[in-house]
Every structure is written in C-alpha cells, then in structure tokens.
Amino acid sequence: MIGGSVLAIVLIGAMGLGLWWVSGGAGDADSGASGPGEGGSGEVQVFEGLSAEHVDPGESVDYAQQPPVGGDHYPFWQNCGVYDEPVLTEAAVHSLEHGTVWITYDPSLDPDQVEQLASYHSPGSYVLVSPMEDLPASIVASAWGAQIQLEDASDERIGDFLREYEQSPAAPEPGAPCSGAYDGTGADFDPETVDARMN
C-alpha cells in the first residue's frame, strides 16, 4: 500500500515537471533568443520614434539597425531598382521615407536566390534590392519602421511583407518619388559631384 502511494506521488511529480517544461518554464532565462527580428526569425519587428532629418551629403549616419529602418538621411533618395553592389545607405533610408521596401541580401547568397529577389522589383514599383555586408540574416526586408529577417528567397513572407509595407501610410511620405535621383552605388558616391537638383 505504501509502495503504491510512493509510486503515485512520483508519477504526479513527474507529470507536473513535464507540464512546467512544456509551458516554457525552463526557457524563461533565454526568452530573448526568440524575440522578433533576431537571426532570421521570420517575424516582423516594428520600430517607432524614428527621426527623419536631412544630413549633409557625405556625412555618415550611425543607425541602430543593420540595415536601417528609418532615421536621418541624405536630402536625395536612392532610385528604386535592382543593384548588384551595395547602395548608399543614407540615400536608401530616404527611399524608405517615400514608402519603399528595401530588400538586402548577403553578398554570398546563391545567384538563383538573388535572381528571385530581383523579381520583386518591376517598373514603377517601390522596391529596392541590393547586397549588404554584415546582415543579421541571409535576407532582410526593411520598410520605414519595420523589418523582417529571413534565410531563403522563396519564403512567402517576403511577398507578405511587400504587400503590407510597400507604399504603406506608416511611411512619412508615401508616394513621393522613387526615381529621378541617385542611381549609383555606395562606392560610386562623391558628395562633391551630387547634382544640385537632389538637394
């Protein structure tokens, strides 16, 4: 009889421990690891309170995110399109202000995946595609105040993000131009020769 009672207590204790483990009790100390926007988690992270001041061409802006999701930027924007070299970050942030979605990818990404990302841009779309070093994931899609980190160009969440944020009213100036400004790369940029029309 006593042996049966002890066995019942042990079983109840084991069941309780199992429920605690499944409910996440053991994971509380590391809960930040599953937060949105970390290491290709595939969840949209939203940012608020972003400044949108113009800085002088050639001035470097220290952004809190890589790639940025908004902030101070150059007085001219990066033309939407597909680039095979890194673009001018401070100009691309100005494009985000106009409602552009900026898709960045690791330069080592498979060419087939790069081609798939490029297909998200079409004439007249507010989409910018370019490689970028030191990304937190293989692919990062950014809009003004929002970002998603992914690992594969075939992930349908890229399209979902575009549908949600391209020309989003959350951008400060949705519908402002995404053409007719700077179409060079970061390496091409010379602040002394920027067309006066861009200022």
Write up what this structure looks like.
This protein is an alpha/beta fold and 199 residues long. The chain has one domain. It has 4 helices and 6 strands; from the N terminus they run H-E-E-H-E-H-E-E-E-H. It has helices spanning 2-22, 89-97, 111-118, 157-165; strands spanning 45-46, 81-82, 101-105, 127-131, 139-143, 146-150. Strands 1-6-5-3-4-2 form a 6-stranded mixed β-sheet. Strand 5 and strand 6 form a beta hairpin. The model is unreliable at 1-39 (pLDDT under 50).
How many strand elements? Answer: 6
Q: How do the strands of the widest beta sheet line up side by side?
A: 1-6-5-3-4-2
State the helix count.
Answer: 4
As a percent range, the share of strand residues is 5-15%
Alpha-beta content class:
alpha/beta
Question: How much helicity do the residues have?
Answer: 10-25%
Query: Main β-sheet: number of strands, strand sense, barrel status?
Result: 6 strands, mixed
Radius of gyration: 23 Å
Poorly predicted regions: 1-39
Overall form: globular
Distance N to C terminus? 89 Å
Number of domains: 1
Order of helices and strands: HEEHEHEEEH
Average pLDDT value?
83
What order do the helices and strands come in, and which of them pair?
Elements: H1 2-22, E1 45-46, E2 81-82, H2 89-97, E3 101-105, H3 111-118, E4 127-131, E5 139-143, E6 146-150, H4 157-165
Parallel strand pairs: 2-4, 3-4
Antiparallel strand pairs: 1-6, 3-5, 5-6
